[in-house]
Structure formats: structure tokens, C-alpha cells
Amino acid sequence: xxxxxxxxxxxxxxxxxxxxxxxxxxxxxxxxxxxxxxxxxxxxxxxxxxxxxxxxxxxxxxxxxxxxxxxxxxxxxxxxxxxxxxxxxxxxxxxxxxxxxxxxxxxxxxxxxxxxxxxxxxxxxxxxxxxxxxxxxxxxxxxxxxxxxxxxxxxxxxxxxxxxxxxxxxxxxxxxxxxxxxxxxxxxxxxxxxxxxxxxxxxxxxxxxxxxxxxxxxxxxxxxxxxxxxxxxxxxxxxxxxxxxxx
Length: 247
What we know:
Blueprint: H1 3-12, E1 16-20, H2 23-26, H3 36-46, H4 50-53, H5 56-61, H6 63-74, H7 82-92, E2 96-101, H8 107-111, E3 116-118, E4 121-128, H9 137-145, E5 159-163, H10 174-184, E6 187-191, E7 211-215, E8 228-230, H11 234-246
């Protein structure tokens, strides 16, 4: 299955970067809204795809539908899984230098990881789309759970989640930071992503280090560049690898 080979690669490297996607969080119960079932359910429930709902223009046109979808897919009581916990352990060991994630759920930080680059922002923070001020995140989440459109306590504008929506660029400095970590790494582990979302997926091409490992249940367009490809559940892979590393 490649677990022992991956463990050996990790032993040889001291500047590892992990690049992850939705598959890292689905094992925690986070819904993958881009999967076939999720996409079909979205069209059935709302009449439009998730990509349209999660767009900049749709947010301002129909914030009520946006936040109904947001409540359904992003406001969830979920916990870090074995993959999140293993990555934190690798960081504590001094092996892992950064987690670069396309996810917005904050589970890497919940597991303890300190150096996390969130390419697409975080679902746990909000700011006013009108005046830019930040309100109490707890109150905003409670309002969303209650089926309300969260409003700014300063000016009454619509509060917007601090996430990168379709039609929007990445937040300033995020891409540069991610690329810098990848360029300087001696090992890149890509997990739980098909590398289909751009520009994020293009970042892995900046890697020129020793080992590239891909852990994903389906094929990716970057498999041919990898030293090792593992098609298993990412939590099980990391659980087995960490047991071997602890020895």
C-alpha cells in the first residue's frame, strides 16, 4: 500500500509541506459540496449549482439563498480526524513546516497545527461587505443557524464570510506565501484533492524538491510527477504511517 515507503521518505526529510483539499475533511463529516451527490442535491434544492451559489455576484443578489446553503454545508459541528492530528504531530516533530489547505473549516488549527496557509479563507470569520468592520463571529454564526441574513452591528450592511468566492481573487499575499513554502520544501505531500481547482492547484508545480507524494482516492492530473501515489483514505494512511514513525 506504500505506507512503509511513505514513512521512510518522511524520515529522510526535514522540510515537508502538506497541500490538501476537501478529501482531508470529508472523513470528519464535512460535506463535499463539489462531489456528484452534493452537486445534484444543490441543483435539486436550489435550482442552481454550488459554484453559482458560492459566487461573488450571487452573494449580493440573493444573500438569503447563499446563507441557507452556507448554513447547510459550512456550519457544522465537526472534529479533526486522524489526518489532521497526524499533521500536527509531524509539525511537533519538526518535520512538517506548513499545511497549505484549500479548505475553509479550520480543522487543521483545531487539531493544533500552528503554521496553516488557508488559500480560500475561513468559514469562521466574517466582515461587513459595506464598511469592512468585524462583528462578533459567534453572534453571526448563531444568526445564520437561525435562518437569518447576518447584518453588521455598525452600519447594517450584510456580513460576508472571510472566504474566497468564485469570481474573487485570493487574499493578498496568500499565493506568494504558499508558493514560497512549496519552493523551499524537500518533500511535498498532496492529499485529499484532485488538483482541479485553480489557481490553487497550479502551486504544486513550483515544487522541485526530493519527493512528491499524492494521497487521493481518485486519479489526479499530477500523478505522473509523483514518486509515490496512494489511493486510500487519507486518515488511514496517516494513522498507519505515524504508527510506523513512532516505532
